[in-house]
Structure formats: structure tokens, C-alpha cells
Amino acid sequence: MKKKLLVSIFLFGILLSVSSCYSTDYNVDSNNSPSVIILDRNVHGNVIKNTYINKYMPKTNFNRNLMNKLKKGSVVYRFGNGSGKKVLICAGMHGNEPQGPLAVLKFMSFLKGKHINGTIYIIPFAIPRTTGLNTRNYRGYDPNRKVSVKGSPANKILKFALANDIDYIMDIHAANGVESSGLIFYRNQFEKSWASYVKKRAKCNIRFQRTPGSLRMAASSKKINTITIEVNRKYSSNKAIYTELRMIKYSSQYLGLLKI
Predict the structure, then answer these.
(1) Distance in angstroms (rounded) separating the CA atoms of residues 47 and 138
(2) Is residue 142 part of a domain?
(3) Is 165 left (phi over 0), alpha (psi -120 to 50) or beta?
(4) pLDDT for 200-246, tens place per residue?
(5) Which of 80, 119, 124, 195 could pair with 206 as two cysteines, CB 3.0-4.6 Å apart?
């Protein structure tokens, strides 16, 4: 009897440790209950120090748990069971572009209860440290121009994509001079078709662009179709966040991941 009691306590402990990976804000079906891993411990930081993030991020249990995880490093959430089309959504490569992570957090909330035809990996804050400091550069350089440098944040994200057989990447940014309706950069014909679909529905703009050293260029050269989704950093916060959210949703719909 005592032995059975000890076994029961042990099994209950295992269940608790597994369930701690999930937030109570994500009461969803088994198809898209998110699992999470720490990707890069070198870039840990407190993103709440960024006043923009602190002001506009919904104060949910999930987000509070995420903030604590980011103090240990960047994280990757996985929605889906790892099969089918695999998509990586990455935001926060530049710490002074908080609109991107906030839009991605809203997209993660949107996924609640949705059936996903495939697998979606999400990195909401690529470099928590620079987001907390509200700065573009990481250790003195632009992190989205150093993807080829071994051990750099972008390099680790690219390696993660390759190791997990990612088929598509959405790289989420914000910049000065972007049209109020948003902008998508593409490089090849498939990416152009992808961007054109989003343009028709979200009424955004699209543009061919090569950016040496960027995650988009490196991933595309490795046969991972990648688009960069941009909004204007100077427009009102809610407008920019929801503009980006719409583009992310339609980009996902084009790939057949979900219906919006």
C-alpha cells in the first residue's frame, strides 16, 4: 500500500511538471496547446523595462509567465504536433521595434481554440535584452546583418529553423517610412505570390528587396521561403499592432495553416 502511494505521488509530480509548461490562458485543444523551450540564454532580458511593451502588452497569466521565461533567454513556442507544414514566426530582432512582438502576442492569443493544419513555431522576442533597452543594436552591431556570424542571435534562429525542417518564415519588424497600411518584403517568385495574397486582403504594400546578412536573405538562400512583415514605428500604437496582426493572419491563411 505504501509503495502504491509513493508511485502515485511520483506520477502526480510528473504531471505537475509537464503542465507547468502550459499557461491557463491557453485552454485549447491538443492540436495547438503550446509547448515552450529556451532557445538562446545569452540574450536574456527584462522586456518590461521597455515602456512601450509595459504599456500595451495584455496583463495575462500567459504573458506574465512569458516575461519570467525571457529573463532566462529567448523562447520558442510550438503550436501543433510537429507534423505538416512548418512555419516559424520571429519578432523582436531589433529591440526598438516593439510593435512586432506585441502583434505576435496577439496572434498567439488568436490561435486559442483554432485548428492548425501544420505546426507553427513562434519566437515573440528574439533578443529580450535589446527589447528591454529599446535599442536596435546587440553588442554593438545590427543583429539582422550578422546571420552568418556563428553564435549570433540570428544565426541561432537560422540553425533552429534548419534543424526543425522549417518550410516558411515570417520575420516581423517595424521601421520608419513604412506606409500606414504596412509592407511586406520578398525575394523570389513564391514569396511574391505569398505577399501578393496578403496585399489583396490586408491592403498592404509589397516590395522586392535584398538585405545582405539578414535572416530573410539567409533563410531564403537555404530554400526556406521567407517574408519580412513591416509596419511604421511612428504611427499610433494600436494601429500599427493591428495592421501587423492582420498581415500575420493572412500570411498564415495563404499557407493553409488556418482560417481567419
Answers:
(1) 14
(2) yes
(3) left
(4) 999 999 999 999 999 999 999 999 999 999 999 887 688 999 999 99
(5) 195
Distance from the Cα of residue 35 to its chain's centroid: 14
Highest mean pLDDT among 18-27, 53-62, 68-77, 232-241: 68-77
Asked whether residue 7 is domain-assigned, the answer is no
Three-state secondary structure string covering 171-227: EEEEECCCCCCCEEEECCHHHHHHHHHHHHHHCCEEEECCCCCCHHHHHHHCCCEEE
Kindly state the cell numbers that stand for 142. 545590427
Measured between alpha carbons, how far is 98 from 35 in angstroms, rounded to an integer? 23
d(CA 92, CA 122): 11
Q: H or E stretch including 40?
A: strand 35-40
Q: Report phi then psi at 52, rounded to 5.
A: -65, -45
Is the residue at 8 inside a domain?
Answer: no
Asked whether residue 130 is assigned to any structural domain, the reply reads yes
